[in-house]
């Protein structure tokens, strides 16, 4: 190998080593930040919001009245003939 080739190989090897170190450092920093966000989220007190709001109540009522596949697919307008609520809603 000529001296120029040796020098070029040396520069390339150094460049790849530096890039590898920077990549490992960036990945370690990203992992650290992710862990910090999780810890911060777990340590923060709740915002005081009621865990159940009116939308939860509406959803609970809708799920309690859900009875058959046709009821779901017809937006509550129709029931299957075998549905126990078939005659309860006109």
Please state the structural category: mainly alpha
H/E topology pattern: HHH
Task: Evaluate the radius of gyration.
Answer: 32 Å
Q: pLDDT average, as an integer?
A: 80
What is the overall silhouette? elongated
Distance between the termini: 92 Å
Strand content: under 5%
Biggest sheet record: none
- Strand elements, count: 0
**Helix content estimate:** 55-70%
Q: What is the count of helical runs? A: 3
Identify low-pLDDT runs. Answer: none
Task: Compile the SSE list and pairings.
Blueprint: H1 3-43, H2 54-65, H3 69-73
Question: What's a quick, concise take on this entry?
Answer:
With 90 residues, the chain is an all-alpha fold.
Q: What features would you describe in this structure?
A:
The protein is mainly alpha-helical. The chain is 64% helix and 0% strand. The chain is built from three helices and no strands. It has helices at residues 3-43, 54-65, 69-73. The radius of gyration is 32 Å and the shape is elongated. The mean pLDDT is 80.
Tag the structure with descriptive keywords.
90 residues; mainly alpha; 0% strand; elongated
């Amino acid at each position: 190998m000529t001296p120029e080739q040796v020098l070029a190989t040396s520069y390339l090897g150094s460049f790849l080593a530096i890039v590898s170190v920077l990549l490992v450092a960036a990945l370690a920093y990203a992992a650290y930040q992710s862990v910090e966000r999780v810890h911060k989220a777990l340590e923060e007190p709740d915002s005081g919001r009621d865990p159940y709001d009116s939308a939860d109540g509406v959803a609970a009522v809708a799920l309690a009245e859900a009875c058959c596949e046709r009821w779901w697919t017809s937006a509550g307008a129709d029931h299957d003939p075998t549905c126990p609520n078939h005659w309860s809603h006109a």
